[in-house]
Fold this protein.
Amino acid sequence: MRKITTSVDIEAVPERVWAALTSFDYYPDWNPFIRQASGRLQVGETLTLRMFPAKGRPMTFRPKVLVVEPQRELRWLGRLAVPGIFDGEHSFRLTPIEGGATRMVQAERFSGALVPFVRGLVDRTVNDFHRLNEALKRYVEADTRWR
């Protein structure tokens, strides 16, 4: 198993951050990593995510939604082929911080037989998480639609 975690502080309340994070139609406007997303944000539903890593080819994933707690947590589980080969449990957690801001923690827990063999891919994903975090911060802080 391998876990990566990144975070960013955003000068906006959790409701605004959540609204931007869960408005999939706007992803092409701001998200450099997950440029296309669709599906219903309900536990048990399947999303379709088109990811564009900075180093690598675009990939489409169809993860299952595990947790939807508005203004707190969004979590899904993606799998390569069958369970246990290469699974990724991805989460966004929002925590209010002093002054009306929000700390967003983005994490992924990778598990499965292939994890030891894809270390480079997992390491590169950290950079893509940072790119997404910073883009979301700029977008929410600048765009009045989320106020």
